[in-house]
Amino acid sequence: MSSYFKIYRPLNLFFIGLSQILCAYFLDRYASFNSIFESSFFWLILGTVSCASFGYWINDYYDQKRDIINKKKPSQIKFYSRLTINIHLTLFVILALTSGYLLGIWFLSLFLFTLFLLYLYSWRLKDLPIIGNLIISMLSFYSIYCMTIFSSSIDGFLIVHFSVFSGLITFCREMIKDAEDFEGDREFGSRTFPIVFGRKKANNLVYLLLLFLISLLIFSYYYQTQYFQGTHKYIFYAYCFVFIVIPLYKAAIDIRYAINQSDYKSLSLLMKYVIFTGILSILFF
């Protein structure tokens, strides 16, 4: 049973749901627990999680052979029949589109477009340099930015801050994962950035992006002084510096010397850790 649930990437789904819940409550000046859970917020989370689950299932379906090379424990989706997989994918599509319909035309269009992009990504686009990485980072950006459509009273600057943070760090992590899966991807004819231009250039690109992200975060944190008073402000700065900026700086240093699969695996986990600490920083607001 646990192998079945691993296909869903439960930790990733938890991050998605948690980020939306925290944004809806802490970044909306008029929000309360009652106003959130009496609204249509449930459908927003269900639609987003259904789209993500669709992406994980269809990606594992197309990656069955290459994952034998890339991962010590490849997805267990290979033990399920094509009919079972198609039933799951159809269910995710129905849940996502039903949620979008109940939320309104904008979300229906967003979820439909997301499902379409995830299909194209898993089928072909992930094997092209940069394009696949941009798709996942863009979807990560919109998973948070869509909160501005859900509630007009959510702080626009903070939503942009967390959306850009999510998109950029996701792009870096996707590039790192491409370097980690170099051998299997190359054997199956993939043309990811590390394969086309080499791991060293991929490392340098991620290094520059991480430095840019760190600079952007420092500027944003400075601007956010208006949200805090007294000790609260210094606790916020200390948290962001220790749990977000320093780990990102460590990742920027480590990526320059990454060579083998284990190096990239460690960096990927570090990126996931920073995503989590970044989500938790919403609690300060």
**CA radius of gyration:** 19 Å
Q: Regions with pLDDT < 50 over 5+ consecutive residues?
A: none
Give the overall silhouette.
Answer: globular
- List how many beta strands DSSP finds: 0
Domain count: the total is: 1
Overall mean confidence score, pLDDT: 93
Helix segment tally? 15
Note the gap between the termini. 38 Å
Helix proportion: over 70%
Strand coverage percent:
under 5%
Which sequence of SSEs, written as H and E, runs from N to C? HHHHHHHHHHHHHHH
Class derived from helix and strand content: mainly alpha
* Major sheet characteristics: none
How does this structure look, described?
With 285 residues, the protein is mainly alpha-helical. The protein has one domain. The chain has 15 helices and no strands. Helix 2 runs antiparallel to helix 4, helix 7 packs antiparallel against helix 8 and helix 10 runs antiparallel to helix 13. The longest helix is centred in the middle third of the chain and has 25 residues.
Concise structural overview:
The chain is mostly helical. Helices cover 78% and strands 0% of the residues.
What are the key terms here?
0% strand; globular; 285 residues; mainly alpha
Give the SSE layout.
Elements: H1 2-6, H2 10-26, H3 33-37, H4 41-62, H5 64-70, H6 82-103, H7 105-123, H8 131-145, H9 147-150, H10 156-180, H11 182-187, H12 193-197, H13 199-223, H14 231-255, H15 261-280
Helix pairs in contact: 2-4, 2-15, 4-6, 4-7, 6-7, 7-8, 8-10, 10-13, 10-15, 13-14, 14-15
